Each structure stands twice: as structure tokens, then as C-alpha cells.
């Protein structure tokens, strides 16, 4: 029997009784593993070898995981600092404990987002407590990191890490799980017979070379066949992120519904973010726990003068002859303070005021799909930033039916037809409604937005004389309803689950 050289080498190295992996055969034949794999497939086709496949999972620490294995997890550091500060008896000031912990930069966020989850204590309103019974030595994640430390690739089956812990470590980007397909090869009886009868090496050529061409030898040689079934490395091309794709789709839908896009600054004066919305200056959401203030500059110099006094007037005394204001102090300096916008309703107030593109005549419809920033506690449905789908319609005689009808039309474009409305309160809308949708896999009601009809007290100072209905919807929540994502961190931010995203088929 005549076979190409590599196949003869593999047959001679393989065995009828002991299965050998492709890697072992590559070592024995001194051929590259790809060549051995190719030869093995050919030989399998000829009935000369039997191939068994299995998928091996191995674990390895990432650089960050190795760092914590070497030192310790940030949440443990925070716990130790909290104990030091006596937080097992009395709640301690968060800022002080963090300062003493030596944690810095992302380490602080990491510590905060894992502390309560792992039972080290509670963080609430700027204070931290430490649970005296918590035991860092029994921290399953820390122990798993220690078990993996120093090893390159550890087979998953050989370590005792429970599934939940492993999942957490992978989510946190501290371990990496890789899969490899292992092929084990044994000789068939036919091969044994052929080997005994003696094999001859057939000269085959894998690639045409310039020499073969110039010498004309190419006409006489035998070319190796292509093996289209051989494994090749999977190449993942770049792709537009599903969140970005959906944002584009949302924009298309809204443009199709007659809306124009608004643009404006991520950092803005509280005036546009809050004061123009008739948000009292002592409103709880305006304290530093919810907003991200700026260190430098802290304030803008000027605001549109006439508008400032009209807004101040509305806050103090309300609008119209029977108006009711807050009768509380209103400070222009407070209004000039800069912050990362907590909603894109700041864009709506800018446009409605006429300062962006001039006075807007009804009927008019505007929208934006942009990032907003909130100092929330991280959890499966909250991040410190998300994309808001802002929108408003200016027209005579708008009613709640117009508002609800608009949402039904909008969400239907994304296959969502069971929107529910719940009465709500916003200082700037009356009536106000929260929107809910049903999560496709958990069946739970998910809050997807907030809406209402702008109040007189807000519109009059801005110089708007007819009705305006408006809303802010969360883009990430829309994706959760569309695709069944359960954790916002899977689709937003640096911890995105790439495999999950790659395997999600965009449905529009
Ligand atoms: N600004 C609101 C959304 C909203 C916009 C306009 C009117 C009513 C509500 C929020 O962020 O939740």
C-alpha cells in the first residue's frame, strides 16, 4: 500500500492497543500537530485508524486573578479595614474605611460590588458595617484562586471548585476557562495487516513552489488532497456590539415615527439637569449620593439670564395666578454646579427652552439615545451608567392615551406587546407613569422606563405654551426583554460575556 509520508509516519507511531493523542503522535513523529491531525483524518477515511474525540476544559488564572492570589481579594482588604475601624460594632464612614484600606482606583469598585454579596457586611448611605462572623479564610473564591495559583492550565476535573464559585470567578475575569478538543487515535485491524505487509511512502506535494513551476516538475508530481474537514482555528472578526446595534435600530424606529434627534453634553449644569425640570433644590436625588459631581471645573460661569429668573420664579412661587411654588430657597450657584447627567431629560429642557435650535413650534417630536450616569449600587439590573431612550412630543391637547399609544407602537417594533403602566411621581410630570415589561425567561416584571406629561411649572418658564409628553426608557432593559439577558453586566461594560453576545442572534 502506498501512502503519503506523514500518514506512514503516523501509522508507524500509532498503536492498536493504546490510544494516543494527536499531541503525543506529533511528538513521536516530529511533525506539526496540524499535519498529524490532517493525516489522522485521511487515515480515518481509509479505515486505517479509529479516532475518539473528547473536549477537555482547563482553568487558568488571569493576570488579575494571579495578582489577587498573590495578595488578596479587594473585598477582603475592605473587610479587614472595616474591622479595624470597628465596623463590627458600629457602622463606620465609608470614605474613611476606604482610605485606610489602601484600596485605589478600580479596586475600590471591585471591593464594593463584592462585599455585601459575600456576606462581609452591609454598605448603605455612605456607611459600612462588618459582619464579625464572616471568615476570609473560608472565602470560596479566595481559596479557589489559591488552588489555581502557579499552574498554567489546570484540568477542570482535577480541582474541587464548586460551580457557583467558578462562575463568579469567570464573571469577575479572574479565571479563564478554555476548551480543547483532544483526539485519540488507535490503529484498526486493517492498519495492522497493512503495516505487516509493508507500507510504501508516496511522494506528495503540499504546496506549489516557484521551483516546481520553473522546472516544470509540477506536471509530474502528485498533489496532496485538501482536507476540508480538518480543524482550523476559529477567527472571530470584529462586530458592532449588540447594544450599539439596538441603539441604531431604536433611532431608526423613532425617525420612522417622525422624531428628530437631540444632541448635547454629558456633563451639564444642574440647571438643565434638574432646575428646569422643577426639581426642588433640596430634592433627595440631587444630593451627592446620586450624582457624579465634577472636581474641576465645578461650575459653569453663565446661564441664560431671563430663563434663570423665570425658573427661579417658578420654583419659589409656582406659575399662574394660583401658582404654588416650593417656597424654599433657590440658589443660582447651586444651579450652575456641573455634574454628569443622570438623565437625558437635560437635553429635552435645553431643546424646549429654545436655546439649542431656536424656538420649536408644535407639532414636534424629539429623541436621543445616549448615555446617562447614576451613582447606583451595582447589581444585575443596575450599573453606574446606562443608555437612555429619551423622547418627547409637543402638540396641542395631548392625553395619556397618546402617551400609551406611542409606547405600544414603539415597543411593538421590537416584538414587545405586553407593556404595563403604573402610576408614578416625578416633580416635572403630571400624570406620571412607570413602564414595565415581562422578562421572557424569568417571567418577572421588569421596569423599563418612566414617563409623563410635563407640568405647567416646568413648561411655562421654558416658554412652551402647548402640551408636551415625554419619557426616558432604558435601552439595556429593552435588550433584556428582547433576548432574555438576566444580568445587565452581560451586555454593558467591560465584563461583557463575549460568547453570550456572539451567540445572540439579532432579531430585527
Ligand atoms: N427623567 C426620567 C424619565 C422621564 C423623562 C421625561 C418625562 C418623564 C420621565 C428618568 O430618568 O427616569
What count of helical segments does DSSP give? 20
**Largest sheet entry:** 7 strands, mixed
Query: Which structural class should the secondary elements be placed in?
Result: alpha+beta
Rg from Cα: 32 Å
User: Could you tell me which ligands this complex binds, including any ions or cofactors?
Assistant: phenylalanine
Domains counted in the coordinates: how many?
2
Residue share in helices?
A: 25-40%
Straight-line N-to-C gap: 57 Å
| Annotated CATH architecture of the largest domain | 2-Layer Sandwich
Rough outline = elongated
Q: What does this 3D model show about the protein?
A:
Strand 10, helix 11 (210-215) and strand 11 (222-223) form a beta-alpha-beta unit. 35% of the residues lie in helices and 22% in strands. The protein starts with a strand and ends in a 6-residue tail after the last helix. It has two domains: 1-73 and 139-235, no CATH class; 243-268 and 341-502, Bira Bifunctional Protein, Domain 2 (BirA Bifunctional Protein, domain 2). The protein contains 20 helices and 20 strands. The chain is α+β, with helices and mostly antiparallel strands and 508 residues long. It binds phenylalanine. Phenylalanine (PHE) is lined by residues 343, 345, 426, 429, 450-452, 470-472.
Amino acid at each position: 500500500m502506498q501512502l503519503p509520508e506523514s500518514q506512514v509516519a503516523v501509522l508507524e507511531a500509532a498503536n492498536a492497543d493504546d490510544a494516543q493523542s494527536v499531541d503525543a503522535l506529533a511528538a513521536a513523529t516530529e511533525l506539526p500537530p496540524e499535519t498529524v491531525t490532517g493525516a489522522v483524518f485521511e487515515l480515518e477515511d481509509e479505515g486505517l485508524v479509529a479516532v475518539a474525540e473528547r473536549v477537555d476544559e482547563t482553568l487558568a488564572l488571569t493576570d488579575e486573578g494571579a495578582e489577587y492570589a498573590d495578595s488578596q481579594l479587594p473585598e477582603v482588604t475592605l473587610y479587614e479595614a472595616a474591622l479595624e475601624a470597628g465596623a463590627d460594632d458600629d457602622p463606620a464612614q465609608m470614605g474613611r474605611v476606604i482610605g485606610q484600606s489602601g484600596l485605589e482606583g478600580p479596586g475600590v469598585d471591585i471591593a464594593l460590588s463584592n462585599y455585601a454579596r459575600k456576606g462581609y457586611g452591609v454598605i448603605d448611605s455612605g456607611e459600612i458595617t462588618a459582619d464579625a462572623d464572616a471568615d476570609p479564610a473560608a472565602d470560596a473564591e479566595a481559596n479557589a484562586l489559591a488552588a489555581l495559583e502557579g499552574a498554567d492550565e489546570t484540568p477542570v476535573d482535577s480541582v474541587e471548585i464548586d460551580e457557583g464559585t467558578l462562575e463568579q470567578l469567570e464573571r469577575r475575569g479572574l479565571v479563564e476557562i478554555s476548551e480543547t478538543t483532544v483526539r485519540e487515535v488507535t490503529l484498526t485491524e486493517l492498519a495492522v495487516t497493512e503495516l505487516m505487509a509493508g507500507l510504501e511512502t508516496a511522494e506528495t506535494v503540499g504546496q506549489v513552489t516557484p521551483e516546481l513551476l520553473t522546472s516544470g516538475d509540477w506536471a509530474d508530481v502528485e498533489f496532496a488532497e485538501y482536507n476540508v474537514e480538518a480543524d482550523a482555528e476559529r477567527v472571530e472578526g470584529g462586530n458592532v456590539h449588540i447594544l450599539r446595534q439596538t441603539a441604531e435600530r431604536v433611532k431608526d424606529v423613532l425617525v420612522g415615527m417622525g422624531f428628530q434627534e437631540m444632541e448635547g453634553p454629558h456633563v451639564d449644569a444642574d440647571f438643565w439637569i434638574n432646575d428646569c425640570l422643577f426639581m426642588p433644590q433640596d430634592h433627595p436625588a440631587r444630593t451627592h449620593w446620586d450624582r457624579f459631581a465634577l472636581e474641576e471645573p465645578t461650575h459653569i460661569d453663565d446661564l441664560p439670564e431671563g430663563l434663570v429668573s423665570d425658573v427661579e420664579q417658578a420654583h419659589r412661587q409656582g406659575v399662574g395666578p394660583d401658582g404654588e411654588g416650593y417656597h424654599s430657597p433657590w440658589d443660582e450657584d447651586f444651579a450652575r454646579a456641573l455634574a454628569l447627567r443622570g438623565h437625558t431629560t437635560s437635553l429635552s429642557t435645553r431643546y424646549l427652552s429654545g436655546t439649542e435650535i431656536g424656538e420649536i413650534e408644535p407639532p414636534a417630536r424629539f429623541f436621543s439615545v445616549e448615555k446617562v450616569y447614576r451613582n447606583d449600587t451595582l447589581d444585575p439590573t443596575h450599573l453606574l451608567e446606562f443608555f437612555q431612550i429619551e423622547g418627547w412630543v409637543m402638540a396641542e391637547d395631548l392625553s395619556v392615551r397618546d402617551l400609551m399609544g406611542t409606547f405600544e407602537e414603539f415597543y411593538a417594533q421590537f416584538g414587545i406587546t405586553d407593556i404595563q403602566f403604573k402610576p408614578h411621581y416625578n416633580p416635572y410630570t403630571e400624570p406620571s407613569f412607570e413602564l414595565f415589561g415581562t422578562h421572557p425567561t424569568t417571567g418577572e416584571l421588569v421596569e423599563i422606563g418612566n414617563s409623563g406629561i410635563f407640568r405647567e411649572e416646568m413648561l411655562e418658564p421654558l416658554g412652551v405654551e402647548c402640551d408636551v409628553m415625554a419619557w426616558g426608557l432604558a435601552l439595556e432593559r429593552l435588550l433584556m426583554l428582547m433576548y432574555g439577558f438576566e444580568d445587565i453586566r452581560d451586555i454593558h461594560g467591560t465584563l461583557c460575556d463575549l460568547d453570550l453576545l456572539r451567540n445572540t442572534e439579532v432579531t430585527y
